[in-house]
């Protein structure tokens, strides 16, 4: 099976059409003697090969939901199925393995290791678990894919913000994950570099069929998505399906 077939460009009946199914997720946290409901029954799906964005004001529960979907936090109740695997009540050891294989993370602050080169940063996820091929070859191929083949041996301090975020995206793709989750990917970039990053994500998606889930405050990011999920007060207020940058 080639990568396009795996990602759903050429549908394969053995590959589930949904990368993620989220059912009735709640999150309750203690505040003094009270319990505060942060998420109030979130249900959504992420389709294979799509770009979906989560938007919402501060306090809407967006960051909490993103952490739960990334397997970094557990819901109070509900269910999350990632690429056919129920991760809701999985032990931390097993969940760490699933995260490494199934989820690529891109952070607003890049989270690159300052003492490592661009190539070494991309290689890092590949040293956990078993992955096919040569680690160094995979890292170089991905850095070439994001347009940084000339920056292999540069450390983060020697790269611009836009270049660091490209390295972060290459690292997120390293294990060939089912889903790439990006938290405010343009948050630390100026307008021009933010637009370049969005074009890169769109190009990567077109080339690889990769599935992206982005959380953002930036309308420009949301405008590139197939669907926009709007959160208000811990609930889904609306889901927009987009055509050519407009909603319906």
TrEMBL record:
<keyword id="KW-0813">Transport</keyword>
<dbReference type="GO" id="GO:0005524">
    <property type="term" value="F:ATP binding"/>
</dbReference>
<dbReference type="InterPro" id="IPR017911">
    <property type="entry name" value="MacB-like_ATP-bd"/>
</dbReference>
<dbReference type="GO" id="GO:0022857">
    <property type="term" value="F:transmembrane transporter activity"/>
</dbReference>
<feature type="domain" description="ABC transporter">
    <location>
        <begin position="20"/>
        <end position="243"/>
    </location>
</feature>
<keyword id="KW-0067">ATP-binding</keyword>
<dbReference type="GO" id="GO:0016887">
    <property type="term" value="F:ATP hydrolysis activity"/>
</dbReference>
<dbReference type="Pfam" id="PF00005">
    <property type="entry name" value="ABC_tran"/>
</dbReference>
<dbReference type="InterPro" id="IPR015854">
    <property type="entry name" value="ABC_transpr_LolD-like"/>
</dbReference>
<keyword id="KW-0547">Nucleotide-binding</keyword>
<dbReference type="InterPro" id="IPR003439">
    <property type="entry name" value="ABC_transporter-like_ATP-bd"/>
</dbReference>
<dbReference type="GO" id="GO:0005886">
    <property type="term" value="C:plasma membrane"/>
</dbReference>
<protein>
    <submittedName>
        <fullName>ABC transporter related protein</fullName>
    </submittedName>
</protein>
<dbReference type="InterPro" id="IPR003593">
    <property type="entry name" value="AAA+_ATPase"/>
</dbReference>
<dbReference type="InterPro" id="IPR027417">
    <property type="entry name" value="P-loop_NTPase"/>
</dbReference>
<dbReference type="InterPro" id="IPR017871">
    <property type="entry name" value="ABC_transporter-like_CS"/>
</dbReference>
<dbReference type="GO" id="GO:0098796">
    <property type="term" value="C:membrane protein complex"/>
</dbReference>
